[in-house]
Design a protein that fits this description.
The protein contains 7 helices and no strands. By secondary structure, the protein is an all-alpha fold.
Length: 231
């Protein structure tokens, strides 16, 4: 009986150590992924990357979707190797490049720098708060998965439709819902790591990166719509 209890304790202890390792590696890789994101954004802003799509605005979302899904597929295929990490960092550079389109739009406002800083600060507060909640409480939020996925599908469909209709009110609605949805995804994804639902730190990093990226972009869109100041 004593041996069985000791073995069970070792099993539980080993599982906790493994989950902490995945969470630690995820946070480290997530922090590292911000460097190529910033580099890509700076390159995009300096080279006026957005001008490539000035004549055909629909090309930007199409390029984004093609590149994002291509990278995500490749990362998933190589999740257990060093190549997966390299692809993830290349992906974050690409995402930074695409982010420069939104940043350039913000910088055309006289208070653009302030709007970007506010969006970054707001995203940081949301992430820190929800990450702390999921980590400290260790509550299992896996029950949210089905509802979040349905919301994501509906949001994606609405976003695709608005590429063609370009309705300002719908754009603002999409951004407001996206901030709430991806904030909930932060809580869900960290909970998955803490409770052993996600054991691969490359995939965990990819999921959290996309959550943070989308919260920032849509928060910036809302700030530009309601707080942007023209010269």
């Amino acid at each position: 009986m004593e041996n069985r209890l000791h073995t069970a304790y070792q099993g539980v202890s080993g599982a906790v150590i493994e989950r902490n390792r995945v969470l630690r590696n995820t946070y480290m890789l997530l922090g590292l992924s911000m460097l190529p994101t910033v580099a890509g954004a700076l390159v995009g802003v300096q080279t006026k990357f957005w001008m490539l799509f000035a004549g055909s605005p629909i090309m930007a979302p199409l390029l984004f979707l093609a590149g994002a899904f291509g990278f995500m597929w490749a990362i998933g295929k190589n999740r257990d190797s060093g190549l997966g990490v390299g692809l993830l960092l290349a992906f974050t550079f690409f995402m930074g490049l695409m982010l420069s389109v939104s940043l350039s739009a913000a910088l055309r406002f006289s208070n653009g720098g302030t709007l970007i800083a506010m969006a970054a600060g707001g995203t940081g507060i949301i992430f820190a708060s929800l990450a702390t909640l999921a980590t400290v409480t260790k509550k299992d939020f896996s029950f949210m998965g089905k509802f979040l996925f349905i919301g994501l599908v509906l949001l994606f469909a609405a976003s695709i439709a608005n590429i063609f209709f370009a309705i300002p009110a719908l754009s603002l609605t999409i951004s407001a819902i996206a901030v709430l949805l991806f904030s909930a995804y932060i809580l869900y994804d960290i909970s998955q790591i803490v409770n052993g639902g996600e054991t691969n730190y490359v995939i965990a990093t990819l999921q959290l990166y996309l959550d943070i990226y989308n919260v920032f972009v849509h928060l910036l869109n809302l700030l530009m719509a309601f707080g942007g100041e023209r010269d």
